[in-house]
Backbone:
């Protein structure tokens, strides 16, 4: 092999995490190459977005206009046939005190289009995007990662060198091992998903027609995502011991799950499942709830699914992917500019990222626990009071990470109590909202008052506010002794150095 080409940063993977990080680093004038194994547009699951991605990160990326022009379905929130209420209840973004206003919506996206928009946008911002380029291994030297070896579209092995490698290669990538940690799989979210696409189907009554619907049934729950008038994504989340049944008959398992869940069965009626083209197969995903014990090591950073994912129930995957892309870009921009040491910049990255992962983990566990009166195997196994001690301890270690200052979240002894009380708060808040489907605003704001929900919304609100209003207000550090975003939101600053 000839001498390696040199870059400031190599990003591996062109999903939302990789495109976000690459764009925000290239914007600062650094030389960034992004290696993507597939040729886009390519299929991916994860179609229901949250407002912070749309109005916060996508605005920072300069991709918001193109998103609007793509004609994605507007999502005002989620409708849930979940908990004790017999009818669906809503979680509407507009009713969050921080999110209400013209940007209190997100989109349901077909990921081929969404990911393609972000990848092409990265190229327009100066990223050297190389598709059909699969990274084979990390190159190391002097105690750090110094580059990668990849196979180019002709199959030739090539080497690249850089000051830093960002692993955004999703759940299937193997590069994360170069950071030296291990991948811990959750004992609580031991689920798998079987999903397919239907040529239309009914919609919830307006104004909720664009909402994601999550509907629980005895053996699990179903998502129902209206992507277009003629395209609906439907997936069943089941216990992982259903794997042999799914392996024997994917389609039969999906159809049987739909039959067990009245509201989805009725919405689909006799709508045909799509059987041709990209949306034509019934797919399965398993082993997706995990976190790595290290999110960075000298010369390498893990973001998006390469670092962690929890569960599909509240559409958090793309948020965590784009959020971590933004955090990594701030850290790398600060290091490359000589503002901060690698350690200081990446401790901030890891501390914030673990904190966001932890608040969502707790929220999602509380969400599952709302089915606590269910006595079926699936729901009994997901009562927070049944969480295994091992899982608690592993979770505490993960959240603490190597460097996070977020001790308040970790206090290992009190974790079980903390999860149980979050669950009780959430259940209580939802019960007080009643089963109302319509905007009974007063009652619904109960949900946003519940501390576990406020926690989950807080950093998302900040990201969104920045996207909408720009660098108007200085932030206080999120972590003890931590940093704050610079005025333009693209680097870190010491709190006393940030402009007021
Ligand atoms: P990806 O989108 O997976 O992108 C990684 C990229 O890296 C890919 O393009 C891949 O081709 C490339 N790559 C891999 N290996 C290499 C290599 N060696 N070299 C070069 N390139 C490589 N999230 C939501 O927000 N909403 C949802 O409704 C939702 N539903 C979900 C349902 C299920 C069943 C599951 C499992 C997940 C769901 N998610 C959802 C999560 C979501 O799919 C992910 O969190 C999100 O796609 C992560 O983005 P990413 O950029 O980290 O990774």
Residues:
């Amino acid at each position: 092999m000839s001498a390696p080409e040199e870059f400031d940063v190599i990003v591996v993977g062109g999903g939302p995490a990789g495109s976000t990080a690459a764009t925000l680093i290239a914007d600062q004038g650094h030389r960034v190459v992004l290696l993507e194994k597939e040729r886009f547009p390519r299929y991916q699951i994860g179609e229901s977005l949250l407002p912070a991605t749309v109005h916060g990160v996508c605005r920072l990326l300069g991709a918001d206009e193109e998103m609007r022009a793509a004609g994605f379905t507007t999502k005002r929130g989620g409708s849930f046939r979940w908990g004790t209420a017999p009818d669906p209840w809503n979680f509407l973004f507009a009713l969050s005190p921080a999110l209400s206003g013209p940007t209190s919506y997100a989109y349901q996206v077909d990921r081929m289009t969404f990911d393609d928009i972000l990848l092409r946008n990265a190229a327009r911002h100066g990223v050297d995007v190389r598709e059909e380029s699969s990274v084979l291994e990390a190159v190391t030297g002097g105690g750090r990662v110094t580059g990668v070896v990849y196979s180019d579209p002709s199959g030739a092995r090539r080497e690249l060198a850089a000051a830093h490698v960002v692993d955004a290669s999703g759940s299937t990538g193997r590069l994360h091992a170069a950071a030296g940690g291990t991948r811990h799989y959750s004992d609580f979210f031991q689920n798998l998903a079987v999903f397919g696409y239907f040529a239309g189907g009914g919609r919830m009554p307006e104004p909720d027609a664009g909402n994601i619907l999550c509907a629980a049934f005895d053996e699990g729950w179903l998502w129902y995502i209206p992507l277009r008038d003629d395209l609906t994504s439907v997936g069943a989340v089941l216990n992982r011991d259903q794997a042999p049944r799914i392996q024997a008959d994917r389609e039969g398992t999906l159809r049987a799950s739909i039959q067990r869940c009245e509201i989805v069965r009725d919405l689909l009626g006799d709508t045909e499942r799509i059987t041709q083209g990209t949306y034509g197969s019934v797919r399965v995903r398993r082993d997706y709830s995990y976190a790595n014990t290290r999110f960075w090591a000298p010369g390498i950073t893990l973001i998006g699914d390469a670092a962690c994912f929890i569960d599909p129930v509240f559409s958090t995957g793309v948020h965590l992917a784009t959020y971590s892309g933004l955090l990594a870009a701030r850290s790398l921009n600060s290091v490359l500019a000589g503002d901060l040491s690698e350690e200081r910049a990446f401790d901030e990255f890891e501390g914030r990222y673990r904190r966001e992962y932890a608040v969502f983990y707790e929220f999602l566990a509380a969400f599952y626990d709302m089915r606590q009166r269910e006595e079926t195997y699936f729901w009994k196994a997901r009562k927070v009071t049944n969480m295994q001690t091992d899982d608690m301890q592993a979770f505490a270690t993960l959240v603490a990470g190597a460097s996070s200052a977020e001790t308040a979240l970790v206090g290992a002894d009190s974790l079980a109590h903390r999860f149980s009380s979050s669950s009780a708060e959430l259940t209580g808040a939802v019960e007080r909202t009643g089963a109302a489907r319509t905007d009974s605003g007063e009652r619904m704001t109960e949900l946003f008052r519940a501390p576990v929900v406020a926690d989950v919304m807080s950093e998302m609100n900040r990201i969104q506010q920045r996207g909408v209003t720009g660098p108007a207000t200085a932030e206080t550090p999120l972590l003890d002794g931590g940093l704050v975003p610079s005025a333009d939101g693209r680097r870190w600053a010491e709190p006393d150095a940030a402009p007021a």
